[in-house]
Design a protein that fits this description.
binds zinc ion; 2 domains; Metallo-beta-lactamase, Chain A; six-stranded mixed sheet; alpha/beta; 12 helices
């Protein structure tokens, strides 16, 4: 990991936002683009102080940020964007067109998030302030984006979220993939991120194919950071996604309620992981990521598929 980090670090800094005092949960990428600085997935508002501290350490501040690149608008990736723009109205924000409306008016997003996180949402993630429409640069995928001396291609990579994009930098061959290719904190395990409500298996697979078609040498994952061995990563991702989704599909026919089906899934993931990661890493996953959410996301997907096919056969 050391060598790739050295090469990467001449023009990028991986900022560990230390969300909820956890190490290696949310990685924001600070990009030096020559005349200006950019942030990829600046995180939630609750980690703004940590973001500021990291900028400060490098002699920079929010007023030096010219661009924010968002892979998608989930709280852990994008929650602080409106606050940053409030403090520096010159920031332009890149986002997929299907995420833009939620940034302009986060009301609906807040409502659905509070169904998942309950009333702790503000404490956990901080405020999600709106972003004025004039600050937005809306993407569909396929655009070439120039930031200072650097160039990126926007790739439309739905599946984790319908409005998910990735950014591929041709020069460095790094693909900044948000959550499209899962979570990886060790070099032994790739964990697909399949929360409700948007998860779509076919889209997830097509998206990793699209990312791979650019032949990236490295991935930058929001959870967590720079990762090499792209071919291995993608193979593991596909294999595990297939296995998990089959497990969930079959669980829908078991005579049980959703809570216990999700619990069974969670136990399966724990057992699977325990054979390949260290106990400390397994504990990190247990504290950081709810595998039950993954069950609910995949279950929603399969139920929708069943509805569609029963509709079609009528
Ligand atoms: Zn996400």
């Amino acid at each position: 990991m050391r060598d790739i980090e050295d090469n990467f670090s001449t023009s990028n800094v991986t900022i560990d936002l230390k969300h909820g005092n956890r190490d290696r949960y949310i990685a924001c990428c600070l990009m030096d683009c020559g005349q200006e600085l950019a942030l990829l997935d600046p995180g939630p508002s609750s980690t703004l102080d940590e973001l500021r501290r990291n900028l400060d350490e490098r002699g920079a501040s929010i007023s030096d940020i010219g661009t924010v690149l968002l892979t998608h608008i989930h709280f852990d990736h994008a929650g602080v964007t409106g606050t940053l723009v409030e403090q520096n109205p010159r920031i332009r924000v890149f986002v997929h067109e299907r995420g833009a409306a939620h940034l302009i008016d986060p009301e609906r997003l807040l409502k659905s998030a509070s169904r998942v996180f309950g009333s702790d949402i503000e404490e956990f993630w901080g405020a999600f302030k709106p972003v004025p429409v004039r600050n937005l640069s809306v993407l569909n995928g396929g655009e070439e984006i120039t930031i200072g001396k650097r160039q990126f291609e926007a790739l439309y990579t739905p599946g984790h979220a319908i409005h998910h994009v990735s950014y591929f930098e041709m020069d460095s061959k790094v693909a900044f993939v948000g959550d499209a290719a899962g979570v990886r904190t060790t070099d032994s395990y790739v964990y697909p991120a399949t929360p409700p409500p948007d998860v779509d298996l076919a889209q997830l697979n097509e998206s990793v194919n699209l990312i791979e078609s650019r032949q990236p040498q490295r991935l930058f994952l929001t959870h967590f950071g720079l990762a090499g061995n792209v071919k291995w990563h993608m193979t593991e991702f596909r294999k595990r996604l297939e296995r998990w989704s089959e497990f969930v599909r079959l669980s829908l026919d078991h005579d049980a309620d959703d809570a216990s089906r999700a619990q069974d899934f969670s136990e399966m993931v724990k057992a699977e992981m325990s054979s390949v990661v260290t106990p400390e890493e397994a504990l990190w996953f247990e504290h950081s990521i709810s595998s039950r959410h993954n069950w609910y996301g995949l279950a929603r997907y399969w139920r929708r598929q069943r509805e569609l096919s029963s509709g079609a056969s009528k």
